[in-house]
Amino acid sequence: MPATNETTLTQWRFFTEAEAETVDAICARIFPSSDGKPGARETKVITYIDRTTANEEEALRRCYRDGVEALNALTSELYGQRFAELTDERQDEVLERVEASTATESTGAPEGPEDEGLLATFFALVWEHTIQGMFCDPQYGGNHEALGWQLVGFPGAQWGYDAEQMRPGFDSKTIPIKTLEDLRRELRRADA
Amino acid sequence: MPETAEAVVVGLGASGGIIAEQLTRAGIRVLALDKGPVHTSEEFTFKQDEVKYYSRGSLVPQLATDPVTWRPDETSTARLLPWAAGVRGNSEPLHLPPSIGPGGGTLHWGGASWRHRDADFHMKSLIEERFGPDALEEDSTMVDWPIGYDDLEPYYDRVEWELGVSGRAGNVKGAPDPEGNPYESPRERGFPMPPLRTAPADDRFKAACQSLGYRPFQQPAAVASTDYKSLKGCEYCGFCHGFLCHVNAKQSSRITSVEAALQTGNLEIRSNSRVFRLDRDPSGRRITGVSYFDPDGNVHQVQSNLVVVACYALENSRLLLASGINANGQVGQNFMTHSFGWCSLVLPEFSNPFMAPLVAASVVDDLNCDGVPDNDEGVLWGSVLTSIPGDLQPIEAAHNLPPGMRRWGQGFKDWFSENYRRLMGIHNQVPSFPSKKYYCDLDPVVKDKFGQPALRITHDWSEHDLAALKYFEKVKRAIAEEMGATQFWSEPTPPAYHLSTHEVGTHRMGENPADSVVDIYGESHECKGLYVVGGGQFPTLSGYNPTQTLQALAYLSADHILDKV
Ligand SMILES: Cc1cc2nc3c(=O)[nH]c(=O)nc-3n(C[C@H](O)[C@H](O)[C@H](O)COP(=O)(O)OP(=O)(O)OC[C@H]3O[C@@H](n4cnc5c(N)ncnc54)[C@H](O)[C@@H]3O)c2cc1C
Ligand code: SF4
């Protein structure tokens, strides 16, 4: 099932619809949102990954292509369903199994879908990109509306902090969050 | 007809920038070649971008264009640095060679600015006196420095006053100041700027250290606490270590020495120009110039009888080897680096670790150098212990989670949203000792896209490194407990990486041409007119960060060059 109506309408730059669905489902298990607080879906991590991957080198793109295929092959074999169709619990079990094979993770580019370390490398890659997509500057397509920064109390792109803000125990959620676009706007205004 | 230049400086980083400034001020026309780009002011202004600088490592050389390989020992096959290679992208941008382009490593360094102590110049003698002649392992190639602290003191002073370092002196001409470093060797005068404001959790660190009987003081920092010369006062933005500085508060040779050199009108910078060979006369005993690739791979030659190579300890030795300047076999030997001991704490109150530069913090120096107490663990030499209360963004923080915790799912999300704002770190760095076993040479297989051989590093952590890491782990754990930390963990030791950005020793300086590569001024014993400068000159590594010492050596080299011309 696609993530949201909005992502269904998005024109993917790299993923096929089916690939986006699988990757999005993994991201949502890394940063879930069932607690009502923003997770990978609300911050649009999948958009970040799609844009990033579109500009990346071939080895990385192949890791996504082959990784999605291998993951769905694994879940079809185990449960007769694609990864995105499994329940949350089942998805977690599969990811735990994939992660446990980290010992064989290869640091090089995977050799192909049959590569033993492929799934572990693929999951490690999706993990990296999920963290980036949660906490990047929103200009990269993730951290939508700075929801990732809000979640952890990071004020984002600031010119600096004053002595009062630097007091131990200061509640950083009281500092208005800024993005790079806000900084650009401030400078444009100052120039005007 | 190849072009000629009065002097060529290869690499405009920490040391090359200083030498370029000194020569151009004296009226010498310098052509500087740097393989990196000139970073634009747009990049400096909008550098609050963790994906660009941390995740993608946009300032540092990439393995695809600048391959470096590593193996733990001679029986293994070297691979591209396994901790940084692979499809996951550059998840270890801080364990590659430093940033490139005018400014070099000082573009994105942390700015911990240390003088060595007197003891650091006599490490070998002090260890042997204290622990016996057999204390160092059989393969040790450790030697004392050919110069001492007193020789460098005036040059340390120049770094602090010409480039700008903030801090509080502990020993001006022998007069102690309890607020400063109680262990520093005597200095002629204090710092030109007072210490920085400290990041939030530092107070707690300092109080805990004091109650444990240590004597914490503030980290001397190459970050301006007030406007000073071309530097502006720090704004504590916290995108510092690994990032460019948007206000020019962080001392970078790009804005200090390189800018001053440009203003003389005697410096020409050619960026994106990669030197691949040092050219010599037929006898091989005199430098005649350099050969370089422009970005399109075209070869150019510049003739000069004064060439300063300042490309960082690793590339310096690679260039010497690739040019065949290694008659005594010493180039690339004595590779040393720091094994970092990073640990993390969760504090009961908000520490807001994303504020302030890395160096807005206290340090404990009681256990450094020969100050390490007698111990059963076999620790021969100590390390500085540094509070790291700031400069931590969320992506980097997510890469250092408590061991055993699942790195994804609801538990991870809860933990990270609850604790990111309560993190802080304590750091120490164990200097590795020089040994016959640890060296760099040319990789027999791997080449860069211009067909030049990659540098191959053969290095593993020694028993001493492991013992010292373990020893300091206990010390940090005790401090964390005293601080009331609710969680404490250490990065896995020994570290998976073998580049700490504090690589030194690979073109050792010495008086005897048989067992060293350059003299105390950095001039090649083998090839006159060729200066090879930087941390590669160090006979031993200290528990302190290396840059202020290699900057001091650069001033020394420049004085010597100017005396001769
Ligand atoms: C993230 C980070 C944090 C650091 N923090 C600290 C700290 O807090 N305190 C400290 O003391 N040290 C720190 N360091 C280390 C510090 O950056 C180095 O010690 C210092 O920059 C080394 O100076 P250098 O002159 O030898 O070389 P660099 O400053 O590295 O300069 C080398 C220059 O040579 C150029 N170059 C390389 N190869 C070629 C070639 N073939 N042709 C032409 N040009 C070439 C490069 O582009 C670069 O500009 C840090 C380093 C890093 C990476
Ligand atoms: S913390 Fe200070 S020195 Fe560091 S980048 Fe920000 S303003 Fe510059």
Task: List strands and helices in order, with pairings.
The complex is a heterodimer of chains A (192) and B (565).
Chain A (H helix, E strand, L loop, with lengths): L4 H5 L7 H14 L14 H10 L3 H22 L8 H13 L17 H18 L11 H6 L27 H12 L1
Helix pairs in contact in A: 2-6, 3-6, 4-6, 5-6
Chain B lengths: L2 E2 L2 E4 L3 H12 L4 E4 L7 H5 L4 H6 L12 E4 L7 E2 L42 H9 L17 H16 L6 E2 L2 E2 L25 H10 L5 E2 L38 H7 L3 E4 L3 E7 L6 E7 L5 E5 L3 E3 L2 H11 L15 E9 L15 E3 L20 E4 L5 H5 L11 H10 L3 E9 L7 E9 L5 E6 L4 H21 L3 E4 L39 E3 L14 H18 L1
Parallel strand pairs in B: 1-12, 2-3, 2-13, 3-9, 4-19, 13-21
Antiparallel strand pairs in B: 4-5, 6-7, 8-15, 10-11, 11-12, 14-17, 14-20, 15-16, 16-17, 18-19
Helix pairs in contact in B: 1-7, 1-12, 5-12, 6-11
The complex binds flavin-adenine dinucleotide and iron/sulfur cluster.
Taken from the alpha-carbon principal axes, the silhouette of chain B is: globular
Bound molecules: flavin-adenine dinucleotide, iron/sulfur cluster
Strand content of chain A: under 5%
- Which structural category fits the helices and strands of chain B? alpha/beta
Oligomer: heterodimer
**SS-based class of chain A:** mainly alpha
Which two chains touch over the largest interface?
A-B, 60 and 53 residues
SSE series of chain A: HHHHHHHH
Radius of gyration of chain A: 19 Å
Task: Look at the structure and give the mean pLDDT of chain A.
Answer: 90
Main beta sheet strand tally, sense and closure of chain A = none
Q: What distinguishing features does this structure have?
A:
heterodimer; A: 192 residues; mainly alpha; 52% helix; B: 565 residues; alpha/beta; six-stranded antiparallel beta sheet; five-stranded parallel beta sheet; 12 helices; 21 strands; 17% strand; globular; binds flavin-adenine dinucleotide; binds iron/sulfur cluster
